Amino acid sequence: MPAGSMATNVPHQMVGIDRMPTKQGSSGRLSRWLRVESAILSSRYRYSENSEGIATGNGAQHREAFKGNFNFDSSGRYQVVAGVFAGNGITRGWSNTGWGSGSGQTNVFLKQLYFSGRPVSGLHLEYGGLYVLHGESTEITSYDYHVYLVGQRISLQRPTRFFLDEISITYAYLGDFDQPNLLKRFDRLKKSNYHQYLVSKKLGRQMVVSADYTSAAGSKIFRQAFKTRLPARVPVDSLHFENYQRTGCRPGYGIGAYLEKLLLKRLKIGGGYASIDRNYGSLNSDHFSIGKRLYATANLGISPGFGIAVFVTRSVANDHPLPVRTRLDLVLSYNLLGLVNRAGLF
Fold first, then answer.
1. CA–CA dist 213, 225 (Å, integer)
2. For residue 339, what is the DSSP state?
3. Can you tell me the distance from the alpha carbon of 224 to that of 317, in angstroms, rounded to the nearest whole number?
4. Beta-bridge partner residues of 261
5. Given this model, what pLDDT does residue 248 score?
6. Is 154 helix (H, G, I), strand (E, B) or coil?
7. Confidence of residue 16 (pLDDT cuts 50, 70, 90)
8. Tell me: the pLDDT tens digits for 38-79?
9. How far is residue 224's CA from residue 205's CA, in Å, rounded to a whole number?
10. Handedness of CA 157, 159, 165, 171 (dihedral sign)
């Protein structure tokens, strides 16, 4: 993640197609105290099958994602940030409608609530129920975008003095996989089984690179990733590459590569390849899980607030069972920030 984008935690790459870009709300009557960062309603049709050809998901789901902050001071240097989301588990950000597989679900959960402070320029402190910091890695080789933590983070963003654009250290607790309600996880602030050290650097105007070391629940993983814009003579706009190396008693390696092209100003198409080792675990994106696969995406902006996204993947050349062999998602998302801004409150 580029420096300065931590607060919104919106990944730059649209491979997890249930995400839409958000922007800071405009000034309103209450914006001195309250600020809406994101307000997104989404629905999707999802079909997935495993390597045995058995359908593991076939139906409609919905997602609500709201995030905002309370400002202690007029400059917003000290805040309490809260995020309310759908999804009843650590990697689940969607709820079943009851149409198709799964019974209907309507609950939303307070998954994020943390103090954010910037006591001096370039220093950012966070404490409480946090998100995962990905750097330039995505949920393919890192954690699913819906994964939650409880802990603390310190980030330094002073490239003129320390060369790197961002240096971040996170100590937190990763667990309670089926307990999305943060109010029932706050006692984990006294524990720590997740340690991450992340750095990122912009190389000119075209490329951003990041690297991190994460130790979590006995697993030790090194990750590196970069995203770069390509020259105009190349038929695609950008290239993203990420990889990881896991050490210990069950070592492993994986990669992800993705190309993207903007067409007609509103349509983004892309495609890529991912290879995740069979012992990686289940905390990366459920679009990819483990194994080797090809995938394609398309994202169409219908209006400033409304978008359609399509994701399709198919596994290739695997010699072990897979939870995801084929998957298709069709997503409709509406960004409510335009309505929020026009109301003139936040």
1. 12
2. H
3. 25
4. 269
5. 85
6. strand
7. very low
8. 999 999 999 999 999 999 999 999 999 999 999 999 899 999
9. 19
10. negative
